[in-house]
Amino acid sequence: MTSKEQLISIVANHSDKLLLPNNKWNSFSVHTNLPTYEEIKEIFSSWKNFKKEVLIYIARQNKDYFYTNMYWDQYAEENSFPSSKTYRVLFDGWDNAQKIVHGDMSKGELKKKFLLHIAKEHIEKFKDKRNWDNYARHNKFPILATYSTYFGNWDNVLKLIIEDSENIKEYVNLKPNYRGITKEELAIILKEHADYLNKTDQWSEYARIHALPSLSLINRHFSSFNKMKKELAIDNINQKNRDLSKKELIIILNKHANYLHTMEQWSEYARIYALPSVDLIIKQFSSFNEMKKELAIDNINHKNMDITKEELILILNEHIDYLHTMKQWREHAKIHALPSLGLITKHFTSFNQMKKELAIDNVNYKNRDVTKEKLMLILNEHAEYLHTMEQWSEYANLHALPSLNLIRKYFSSFTNMKKEMEIEK
């Protein structure tokens, strides 16, 4: 008698047969000595459960490719595996299937793992920083701006792959727990990242990307952000208004070259990270374009570029997490010099039509009547933005997350929610 595990393993090699109607499956099972449609339903409670177990088995056996739906589809087509659409239908969304396959990893950790996998698989091309974006677009891989968003800069990724390749898995799966951290331990961590402690919003964004201590944890140990800076003697050098020499300015700009495509992009990025202003750049280089010329920065700006629909789809798929709402995309596109809403509408007739064609799940929790348990899961994933009502309101609006009203509905107040979920004040 074939065990459940053996049966799943055998059928995984014939996954196309899972979509057959019961009479055709029975014909197939006769020739392969497999259980009939009715017998399988009895073993697994339902045919759907059987399909789900086979699909998860396939994905786990190939989990290095089970990241974005687009990346999986390319691999699945080459190996005759079920498409991402099959997973989305059976598991009520791609995210749910990923959670089962990859375990407890957050979306951020999963994204980092995917980015490292791509870079490692194509290391020789990735080392060529100047030509990576062209290679990436041709092969539908993430561009350098995406790596910068998750790892700070290109050098950090390269260092991880070349110097510490055997520890990539440990690095990606690392999920720091700072609950029991002492003030002294916190001070050591903060001093290592002192360059990003100019302003609270600068630190919040940097800490979120790099899984570092939150503002609330800093306030808990030092009573305020400014007192922490004073106590640790962190020089509050705001490079935005500092009169830097041209040589110093070039060093800074080269570190953030991925955000120098347009003045608008740099202005927004520099504001968040307290970096040299456009005025200072113009003062040292005579014009913004002159600076780009001198620093040999590629003038790739997708915002108003007359690209084809196919090229636009490639770009949008790389930033799929920011396509839930028009406001969310507008903010993200502004910072990263990505295609405008006008260009999207030009190729797809509307924003919603684009989401439909790209099979982007329209998960908008803002006004959705989710259960309290589901709400708690969502809030836990974004706990670092739950310190104040104002902070959450702005963040939730941008990312289509549960509104304050929905939180009050289940917890009676924002404060009660924080208490029940043990979120630090």
Question: How would you explain this protein's 3D organization?
Answer:
- The protein is mostly helical and 425 residues long.
- It folds into six domains: 4-102, no CATH class; 107-173, no CATH class; 183-231, no CATH class; 246-294, no CATH class; 309-357, no CATH class; 372-420, no CATH class.
- 63% of the residues lie in helices and 0% in strands.
- α3 packs across α4, α6 (84-90) crosses α7 and α16 packs across α17.
- The longest helix has 15 residues, at 47-61.
- The radius of gyration is 25 Å and the shape is globular.
SSE order and pairing:
Elements: H1 4-12, H2 22-32, H3 37-44, H4 47-61, H5 69-79, H6 84-90, H7 94-102, H8 107-121, H9 123-126, H10 129-139, H11 144-151, H12 154-163, H13 168-173, H14 183-192, H15 200-210, H16 215-222, H17 225-231, H18 246-255, H19 263-273, H20 278-285, H21 288-294, H22 309-318, H23 326-336, H24 341-348, H25 351-357, H26 372-381, H27 389-399, H28 404-411, H29 414-420
Which key features would you list for this structure?
63% helix; mainly alpha; 425 residues
Order of helices and strands: HHHHHHHHHHHHHHHHHHHHHHHHHHHHH
Unreliably modeled segments? 164-175
Radius of gyration: 25 Å
Nearest-integer average pLDDT: 77
Q: From the helix content, strand content and strand pairing, which structural class follows?
A: mainly alpha
User: How many angstroms separate the termini?
Assistant: 58 Å
Quaternary assembly? single chain
Beta-strand residue fraction:
under 5%
User: What does the overall shape look like?
Assistant: globular
Overall number of structural domains: 6
Largest sheet: none
Share of helical residues = 55-70%
Number of E-type strands = 0
Number of helices: 29
